[in-house]
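Sequence in, structure out.
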Amino acid sequence: MADSSVESSIDPTAEPRLRAVKPEVKKKKSQWSSLAAVLEKHRGKKLLVVLVGYPDPDNIGSGLALQFLAREYEIETSLLSFHEVSHQENRALVKQLELDLWLYDERADLSEYELYALVDTQRPEATPIEEELEKKTLIAVVDHHKRSSDVEAEFIDVREDAGSTCGIFAEYLEASLPEGLDSNEPEHIKLATAMMHGIRSDTRIFIEASQQDFNAAAYLWPAVDQALLRKISAQSLSPAVMDMIQSALERRRVYDNYLFSDVGFVRKENRDGIPQAADFLLTRAGIDTVLVFGVVNGRTIEGSLRTRSDTVNPDAFLKKAFGIDEEKGSHYGGGNVRDKGAFQIPIGFLAQHNDREQLYRLACEIIHEKFLEAIGQEAGS
């Protein structure tokens, strides 16, 4: 006989519960047909994919995807970068996949390229070839950052709700190759692996991924070299980067839930240690916004902002803090609307100063003062 004191989890007299049914989500029509039309229009020409800033997994993977798609239209494409790859994972990505990135120098002849495209950015003015680009046709801008109101191109696809630009390009690939990438084709494997790393990197291993990114990962996954992806993602920190993180810890200054720090003079090849130090300091309990900077190659003050605050907009914060470069007509800093941003301020004539330490102290005072103004505090408080 059943024990009547034990409550049953099912009430046989109750009305049957109805399971909530989610409305069917209609898949948005891919913009691939529009991009394909632009590529067809320029069949047989030469295209420059401009990688603004330090090459990272998302812009490298996106550039490779555009290069792959353009090849079907007999468009010869080169990926042009303006800084050496510095982050240890990014160096591993380029080396292991044997990627061909063209590092710009002043002797580079770009005259044979009639076309150019921007991926993972909307800012051609952030390059030393801005004037030369004005003579070329901007055929495509594909990005997942905040939309710039003045961007103009033959094809524009800017999705602020996407977690990565590689996720957008995966949609184009799926529309172009609905049967999927070939897991036996080396070029397909290289492309899928690079793009998957780009998605993982920009979405913090899918923690901040959108549906777009998950759909993209599902499409790319069969052709991804999983062992190589693990190897790329498991790179150790270099001693120089470890030292930078230690310096940032030792020099940190805390203002309520804000943390400010610096890492000293940094060699160009180690500059990715600055955002890595910021990422590490953001894990400190009680802190939700971090700004870390250093002087790179004795020529520029470069910094990174990281936040998990619901009220701090990195793009607005950095633009307010550091203002505009009047000569170039662009802001010294900027970022996305969620969690990260960066700034770069040329030291210019002051770089010739003989006393490096005095120069650095001056840089610290200026950046610190701007930071305190941005958070509404006064120096010495």
